[in-house]
Amino acid sequence: MSQKRVLIAEDSSVIQNLAKKILEFQNFEITAVKNGEQVLQILDKEDFEIILLDINMPIMDGMECVKAIRGLANKAKAQLPVVAITGNAKNYSEEDFTTAGFNDVLVKPLNFDRLVEIVNELTAAE
C-alpha cells in the first residue's frame, strides 16, 4: 500500500519536527514547508492527501493559503482536506475557519493524538 502524503506548513521547526515524527510513525509520508507560498509552489508540482496549515506564518498565512488552495484550477487539489493549526484560536471563530475553507482545526499546544485522528479521518475516504 502506498503511503499517504501529508504536506505540513508550519514555521515553528519544533512543531514541524514533532508532527513529522508522529505522522511518519503512523506511516504517512511528510513534506514540510515554512509558509503558504511554499505550499502553493509545491502543490503545483506534487500530489498530497492532506495539508496541515499553520495559521500564523510569514509571507502568506494559513487563512490566505487555504483560500488560494480552494481557488486552484485543479479541482482535485482545490478539494484536498486542509486542517488549520492555530496558536491563537481566539482571534478566529470556528466559522471563520470553515468559511475560509478548512476541514478541521487543531489548536496549539498540539494534541498529537488528535492530530493523528484527524489526519486518519480525513485521508480514510480513499
Structure description:
- The protein has 126 residues and is an alpha/beta fold.
- The chain has one domain: 3-Layer(aba) Sandwich (Rossmann fold).
- Helix content is 44%, strand content 21%.
- The chain has a five-stranded parallel beta sheet, sandwiched between helices.
- The longest helix is centred in the N-terminal third of the chain and has 13 residues, at 13-25.
- The termini are close together.
- The model has no long low-confidence stretch (mean pLDDT 94).
- InterPro entries: Bact_response_regulator (IPR050595), CheY-like_superfamily (IPR011006), Sig_transdc_resp-reg_receiver (IPR001789).
- This is CheY-like chemotaxis protein.
- Keywords: Phosphoprotein.
- Pfam families: Response_reg.
- The modification 4-aspartylphosphate is found at residue 54.
Entry keywords:
126 residues, alpha/beta, Rossmann fold, 6 helices, 21% strand, globular
Helix segment tally:
6
Task: Round the mean pLDDT to the nearest integer and report it.
Answer: 94
Strand order within the widest beta sheet = 2-1-3-4-5
Q: Roughly how many Å apart are the termini?
A: 12 Å
Low-confidence stretches: none
Number of strands: 5
Fold topology:
Layout: E1 4-9, H1 13-25, E2 28-33, H2 36-45, E3 50-54, H3 62-70, H4 75-78, E4 82-86, H5 94-100, E5 104-107, H6 112-123
Parallel strand pairs: 1-2, 1-3, 3-4, 4-5
Short synopsis of the structure:
The protein has 126 residues and is of the alpha/beta class.
